[in-house]
Amino acid sequence: MERLKIQNNSVTLVDQVEDKLLSYFREKDLRKGDAIPNEMELTVSLGVSRSVVREALSRLKMMGIVETRTRRGMILSEPSLLGGMKRVVDPRILSEDTLFDILGFRIVLEIGICSEIFRKITPADIDSLEEIVNVGIMYENNEYAPFSEFAFHAKLYKITGNKTIAEFQNIIHPVMTFVKDKFQEFLAPINIQLKEEGRIVTHQDLLQYLKDGDEDGYRKALEEHFEVYRIFVNRKNEYNAAMKNGKDND
Amino acid sequence: MERLKIQNNSVTLVDQVEDKLLSYFREKDLRKGDAIPNEMELTVSLGVSRSVVREALSRLKMMGIVETRTRRGMILSEPSLLGGMKRVVDPRILSEDTLFDILGFRIVLEIGICSEIFRKITPADIDSLEEIVNVGIMYENNEYAPFSEFAFHAKLYKITGNKTIAEFQNIIHPVMTFVKDKFQEFLAPINIQLKEEGRIVTHQDLLQYLKDGDEDGYRKALEEHFEVYRIFVNRKNEYNAAMKNGKDND
DNA sequence: AAATATTATTTGTCTGACAAATTAAATAAC
DNA sequence: GTTATTTAATTTGTCAGACAAATAATATTT
Cα separation of B26 and B20, whole Å? Predict the structure, then answer.
C-alpha cells in the first residue's frame, strides 16, 4: 500500500532502494564482514516489496558489495574496485572512441609507472623479464607472440606492487588484442614505416634500459614503443573524418 | 518445472542468466541501440521465471548495458567503462590497502600524462590554469583549498582529451579527499618536514614548467609534488606493521 | 481527413508460495 | 552427563500470478 509514485523520470524504486541501501551501510558505518538485515526486514523498513529489495540486492551482489550465504544471511564484503568494469569491457559493445580512450589510458599508465619501476625493481625481476624476452619470438615488425607480449608488460605492472594497477592491466588486455586484431590493416603499414625509419623499440631494448638503470632512456624508449598506437589513433581519426565527409549521411 | 539444480556452489540462476544474456548479445552481434527481446520472451527462451530474468536485467541496467523505456521495450546502450566503479568507490567500504592502491594509481596516471600534456597543451589552457592557480589560496604547507586543488588537476586531465582518463579522475577524487581528511595527522608532519627541506612544489611551480615547455622539469617537479603521499604510504605501512607486532591478536 | 477514444503491449511493482540449505534446538543413545 | 542423531526454524533462491502505468497501435467519431 501507499505505492510511491515518484518514479516519474525513469528513476525506479529499485534505483532508489539501491541508493538507500548504500546510504544505510554508510550511515551505520558497516564494514567488511558485518551482517546486514535480511530481506524481510529490509522489505518492511523500506516499505517496498521483496522483489524490489531483491533486485537492488542483486545489483550489489554483482558489484561484490554484499555477499550472501544461504541461511546465514548477508554480509558486507569488499568490492573489487575494477570488478564492475570486467563485465563492461567487451570490445564489441564499446564504441570506437572508448576503445581508443582505453588504448591511450593503457599507454599513459605504463609510462606513468616508470619511476615506480626503477624504484622497486630487483635483480630477480630482471631475470624474470629476461626469460620472458628470450622465449618471446618477435613475429615481425614490432609484433610479438601474444603470450610474451602480455607476460612482459604484465610483469612490469607487477613490479610496482600495486594490485589495482595490475588488475586494471588484466582487464583492459582484451581490448588491446581486439584493437590489434581489428585494425591490423591500419597498424601493419605504420609498423613497416617505423621499421624503415629505424624507430622500432623491442622488449629487448626496453630490458637493456632497465638493466642499465637508465630511467630517462627507458621512458623515451617506451614512448617510442607505443608510437605505433599514437600514429594509429591519429590516422584513424583522420580516416573517419574523411569517410564522414565522403558519405555524409550514414 | 525442471528447476535447474546446478546452483551447487553459490552460482545462482541469476548469475547464469546474466552471463547468458551477455553471451546472447555477443552472439547476435547486437550493437548500441538495438532492441533486445522483452522480459516474457527471455523468460520463455531461457526457461526461468520472470523474476530471475528481471534480476539479471536489473544488473545490466545498473551497468548501463541495457536501457529500458517503458512500453517501448529494452535496447542495448553503451556502458560507461567506469560507470560500475562509481558505486564501489566509497572510501568507507574500501580497505586501506585498496585506498593506498588508488592513491598510487592516481599518481601514476598524472605522471603518465605528462608527455601527452606537453603534446597537446594550448595557450588557452595555460591561461585557464593560471586563473585557477591565482584564485587558489594555499592554506599552508602544501595544502590547497579543495576546489582549486581539484580544478587544477582536473584541468590537466582534460588537456589530454581522453574522456575516460578524465572520468577516472573524477571518480577517484572522493578517495583523495577522504585520505587527506582521515590521515591528516600522518600527512601534516610530512608536509612540514618537506617544507623545511625546501621540497614543496606548488601549483604555481608546476605551471611555470608548463609555460617554459620544460617537460622533464615538469615531470620531476610533479614527482616531488606527490612525494608527500609516497612518504605517507611508506610510513603508514611501517606504522601498521609496528601496531600489528605490538598487539599481536586483533 | 483529423482528432479523439479504445485497445494492446510491456515494464514496474506487489503478493504469496515453495524448495534447499543450514543453523539451532530437541531428542535419543551410550 | 555427554555425544550422536533427528527435528524444527530461518533465510535465501526461485516460481507463479496479478495489477498499475505508460504508451504505441488501432479503431472510432466528428
Answer: 10
